[in-house]
Every structure is written in C-alpha cells, then in structure tokens.
Amino acid sequence: MTTESTSVPSSPGPWPTAGQGQGQSFGLASLAPPRGAPGRVDVPRHRRPRARTRSGAAPLVVADALAVVAAASVLSAAHHDLRLVLPVLALVLVLDGHAGLHRPAAHVRALDELPALASRAGVAWCLAAAGVAAYSPHLAIGPLRLCAAYAVHVLLVCAVRALVIGRRRRVAKAHPRSALVVGGTGDARRFAAAAVQHPEYGVRPVGIVGVPEQGGARTSGEAGLPVLTTTEEIHRAVIQNTVCDAVFLDDDPGLVTLFQQYGCTTWRVGGRHQDGPMGEHMWGYAWHRIVPLDERRGLTAKRALDIALAAPALVLALPVLLLCALAVRLSDGPGVLFRQERVGQYGRHFTLLKFRTLRPSDDTESATRWNVAGDRRMSAAGSFLRKTSLDELPQLWNVLRGDMSLVGPRPERPYFVAQFSKVHAGYAARHRMPVGLTGLAQVHGLRGDTSIEDRCRFDNHYIDHWSLWQDVCILLRTAAELVRPTGS
C-alpha cells in the first residue's frame, strides 16, 4: 500500500475522536491532538497504576519468613542459626517473588498455590542442605529432619497465606473498586451483571466502554450502566467515579494504554490456555492482568543500552557528522539541520533532528508532504545522504535526550499520525513504546513509500513481543542493511 492508497486527505484535518473510523477501536491518537487543538484530553504523564490494596506483597513476604524460621526450629540447635536461616529465606523470597506468589491473583485460594509454594520451598531446603553438607560435613542435615522442616514450612506458609487471602476477600467485598468494562455491550452487560451479583470479587462496574447497539439507548442492562463512546466521556467517568480497574473483553492496545496512563489496573477477560492457578477467575470468567510496558522486566536495560551505544556512536561519528554538515552547507546553503515535529511515546510531540536534504517551500509542505524521493530540488549531496541514511545520524542526539530509542516504531508527523489512525486499526497503538531510529518493520524493508498497514502490523508485533535480545538483533540487522543502502 502506497501513500495514495491510504486515503489521506489533501489538507490537515482534526484528530479522530474515539470510536470514529475504527468501529470499537478507540486508538491512542485521540489523546494527543496537535497543540492548541480544541477538545484535547490531558492525560497524566508517567502515572503509575495505583497498587491494589488486596495485592500488597508485605504480608506474604512475612508469611515466607515465619515459615522459614519455624521450619529451622525443627532442626537441632546447631542448624538453627543465621548461617542456615538466611540462605533459605533468601532463596524462598527470590523464587516466590519471581513466580509472582507475593502478588497473587485477585481471588486465588491458598490451595491453588500449594504446588508452586511446595516446589519452591523444596528447592530452597535441598540447596541449603547440600550447601551445609559440602562445607560443614559434621553439621549435615539428616533426611528425616530435612523432611520435617520442609513439612513445617509448607503447612505454615499455606496456613498464613490462607488467613491473608481470606481477609483480602472480605475487604474486597466490603470495599469494591470501581471498574469500567470494555467490549461489545452484550458481552459487557453480562460480565457486569456477574460482577454485581458476586461482590466478593471486589469489582463494581460503573460503565461500559463500547459502541451502543443499533437502536439502543446509551444505558445498558437493568443496572442502567452508561455506555461511553468517546475519550472525553471516559475521562469524566474515570475522575467522577474514581475508576481503579479497566476490564477488557476485546483487545484494544490503544485503549489499554489510555487506562494505564490514568493509573488504572488493566485486566483481560477470556481466552484459553492461560497460565496461572485455577482460582484466577471472576465467576468463571478467566482473567489476567495486562502488565504495563513500563513494568516489564528489562525496559530499564533498554534505556541503558540506548545510552551505552548512542553516546560512543555520536562521538565516533563526529568526523562523519562534520563532513555531512559541510556538504549540506556547500550544496544547499545555511540551515544544515532540519527540525521537524514528530509524535513519540504516548502521543507526545518532540523535535526530531536530521540533516537537511531538501528545503521545503513552506511549513505546510514540510508537515504534510509524504515523500520527497525523486524531487528535482534535491541536490546531489542531499540525495546521497538520503540513500545512505546518513541524514538520520543527528537523531542519535534525540536518543540521548530520551525522545527516542535506538529500536522502536519510526516516528511520524502529527498530520500523518492523525490520518493513518483513522484508516488503519491499531496504528495509534504503535505509540505504546518509545519510537526508534530503526525497528522491526525497517529491517523487513518497510521504509519510505511502503505499506502503512504492514508497518503497523510489524510495529505492534515488536511491542507485544519485546525483549532486549530482540533489540540487539534488530540493531545487528540494521548494521548489515547499511552495507546495501536503499534510502527512505
């Protein structure tokens, strides 16, 4: 698909309102209209989700500690010292924490977690016993004493966790959290009815986010829940009802990001073959938490990788930068650097830097012209810089500033983000991740005047399956592509 087939209007238009152009897909683009545009919705920046009261980790960490101390007391006095207790406790806390056992599902039961707790406790005690036997053979723990200590540990930790989880269920029933249900009004109405009839799950629906059924009113079901269809309505509902949870029956990455920015905990209902204990459900509806991108392991390492590579690259590329700047100055006159507004993570605007390869006739052309490849006004120097991608080198400074990452969806101008978000479902969801110098779409040849739909699909696949190693692979593939440049 080329630019002509994307149905981009000839003049800039307003950013799409939620629910327009994409059916039930609201799209993140509606959150960040151009500066000064009417109806702009301000969303809290980098606001972390409010912690769920019933999922605090401290009581369950204490339960692990009590279980280890009680189990150690079963052993002889020679073994009941810090040299044994501390290693076992450290292992148990690391293993249970890594498995998410300190933040269990909203309505899980202690028996559901017994296999996971027992297996990790067994690993911890066996490693500790092996360590004692290796370094102090005269203090070796006999098999009977080891089994007794293990049994005490498992029984006590399950008993304490049962008390903690039972109290959380009572608190959740007495103080349910306001929630919005996202999906088709029929399915959403049934889920909301189940949540109302079973308050022990701690979910109190206050509205449905979706598109009203044909001929239907903007209220749904016997409870008269309002149906919200625009970001403005969602904005008001979240504030007025102190919404803490958003429950998704349909996939909508852009809307997930919106609620996460509001500080809501996001949940996905439905689907099969989900990992987790059997107790992780809401009255038979399988659900799991949608973890925000900024909570994923390794994103801090992603930023560290950006700095570690961009800083020395900028220094090493300094002679090349000076030569490029000199070539642009001699061929095209003053104004070596080209500054252009682009849309970054969460729809925020930033100024992208490039070497000037063509001087546009006015600001409108700069903001709305899709591709300048083959333009006769482009000098030989500008054409060379574009074909070799050397015009992108100043963006290393954008990476160091934190406007961009080395790897991520390529940033686009606000005008085209607005238009493409109307045409391509999921385009706005690309802004869940920091934009990048290169990305998965680019290493598959999707640069310049290529299919926007394909780029969108690759970008969202990259975000959904992100890992630090994949970033390294994409950077290596990009370096290989520089050997056979094609331009952009």
TrEMBL record:
Compositionally biased residues, Polar residues: 1-10
Domain Bacterial sugar transferase: 302-483
InterPro entries: Bact_transf
Keyword list, A-Z: Membrane, Transferase, Transmembrane, Transmembrane helix
Residue ranges of the region described as Disordered: 1-55
MF (Gene Ontology): phosphotransferase activity, for other substituted phosphate groups
A family per Pfam: Bac_transf
Transmembrane segments: 57-78, 84-102, 114-136, 142-164, 307-328
Signal peptide extent: none
Family to which this protein belongs: Belongs to the bacterial sugar transferase family.
PANTHER family, per database record: COLANIC BIOSYNTHESIS UDP-GLUCOSE LIPID CARRIER TRANSFERASE (PTHR30576), UNDECAPRENYL-PHOSPHATE N-ACETYLGALACTOSAMINYL 1-PHOSPHATE TRANSFERASE-RELATED (PTHR30576:SF0)
Name of the protein: Transferase
Organism: Streptomyces cinereoruber
